[in-house]
Amino acid sequence: MVPSRLQSPASAFVLFRLALRNLRRQLRRSTLTGLAIVLGVGLLVMSRAFAAGGHEDWIEVGVRLGSGHVAVQADEFQARQTLDERLSATEIAAAKAAIERIGSTVLETVVRLEAKGLASSASAAVPVSIVGVDPSAERSFSPLPGRLTEGEYLASDDEIAAFVGVRLAERLALELGSRLVLTAQDAEGSIVGQLVRVRGLFETGLPEVDERFVQIHLETARSWLVAPGSATTIAVLLSSSREVARAAETLSSGLVDHPGVRALSWPEAMPQLEAAVRGDDFGDWVFHIITLLIVALAVVNTILMSVLQRTREFGVVQALGMTRRQMGTQVLIEGVLLSAIGGIVGIALGYSVTWFFFRDGLDLSSLMEDGFRTAGILIEPIVRPRFHLDQVLTSLALVFSLGVLASVYPAYRASRIDVTDAMKFEA
Fold first, then answer.
1. If we measure between CA atoms, which residue out of 91, 61, 375 comes closest to residue 232?
2. What is the Cα–Cα distance from 241 to 233, expressed in whole angstroms?
3. b/e map 12-24, b = 16+ CB within 10 Å
4. Residue 377's beta-bridge partner residues?
5. Percentages helix, strand, coil for the chain, rounded to the nearest 5?
């Protein structure tokens, strides 16, 4: 009989079977609700994959143009941006030794000497950021060599060459081979100038870069600014931004003997980019929550209608010995089952569709012909999805939580059914 079975250790399994049977009895309704869950969760999965891919692209473009996923700098360099806050040769050696301990996740490392100064020609003068670089290392790290529009990138054997933006060249009326004078304050506090020749022009589409950025040879910068063997930044490029926390911690532990040196993660070194990523991620989650709420309402509607239509049935089984708690649990299981099955299918469908159709990227060039600018970087219009295990686990957790929360009220209604009133109910 029902009472003996429900009071046995196997009562939970019996409730599970009853819940599954009730979902099959209303197959059309269950199927329609399941499809809504599948589509909603599938859309959520696709959206998260493209959001993760888009943000990774933002970060990679930003760190390549900036100071890397992790930057080793003097303690006050971010605040002061002067040569007084520079790394000595000993500190550079210690940083490089610490970088080697990070392992295979390090793709590239570059050493830079940066200074604020003035670029001037016979026609004008423009304030610029002057960066001394190692040309051979910078080619594979920075996106600027790939933005070459005219001439050549810096060569290792040409120490008076300069690589400038097209807008700066227009402001100063420069051509390939033209001379310009760079003026800045050296490490001893004196104002000094350096004559260089334009070797190549680049264009990123970002006015603040194309008009305010000059690259010269690292050794030229060191000699001119009286900072032999020094640097202001050691930029580290990693295989993924997800490795940043571990890499920064490893670098920090390797620099404990140098209290004036710190390892900065890209969010610390580039707060504007972090704010842009966080803002976009917040917008994504607002969209996801709205989608999940719509799915939750579909689950609530299906389970609640099922409860209302089975009022007499609940009265009968209650008269046979089923407790109110067991009735509520059965309804709760129905909602969780419906959400779990639809959610798992939706996750599988979302990842399958994303991988099959969009693994090479989603081309949004028709929506943004000139690219997308944010936080001082130019984003390419092709977005490639990224798949991570934590995305799957998060999606599963959301689906399970959705099933539980959406079934609480119908389960409560089922548990409050009175047997005497239910027996009078006409289905």
1. 91
2. 19
3. eebbbebbeebbe
4. 374
5. 55, 20, 25
On whether the CB atoms of residues 158 and 199 are closer than 8 A, the answer is yes
Per DSSP (E only), the strands in 147-282 are 148-151, 161-165, 179-185, 191-202, 213-217, 233-238, 261-265
Token readout for 254 is: 């390797």
Q: How far is CA 99 from the centre of its chain?
A: 23
Question: SS3 of 369, please?
Answer: coil
Determine the Cα–Cα distance for residues 136 and 133; give it in Å rounded to an integer.
9
Tokens of 182: 């760079």
Residue ranges of E strands in 258-309: 261-265
Q: What is the pLDDT averaged over residues 357-364?
A: 75
What 3-state class would DSSP assign to 343? helix
* Kind of pairing between the strands at 161-165 and 191-202: parallel
- Interval 11-29: pLDDT, tens: 777 788 888 888 888 788 8
Side-chain-facing half-sphere of 101: CA atoms under 13 Å: 15
Q: pLDDT digits over 270-301, tens only?
A: 888 888 888 888 888 888 788 778 878 877 88
CA dihedral sign of residues 34, 36, 37, 42: positive
Of the candidates 118, 112, 142, the one whose C-alpha atom is nearest the C-alpha of residue 221 is 112
pTM, 2 dp = 0.77
HSE (side-chain half, CA atoms, 13 Å) at 407: 23
Residue type, 272: Q
Q: Is-contact 21 358, C-beta < 8 A? A: no
CB atoms within 10 A of CB 132: 25
Identify which of 233, 240, 230, 218 has the alpha carbon closest to the alpha carbon of residue 264: 233
pLDDT tens figures, 193-202: 999 999 999 9
Q: How confident is the model at residue 386, as a pLDDT?
A: 83
Q: Residue 403: CB partners within 8 Å, gap ≥ 6?
A: 299, 335, 336, 337, 338, 339, 340, 343
Mean pLDDT in residue range 326-354: 86
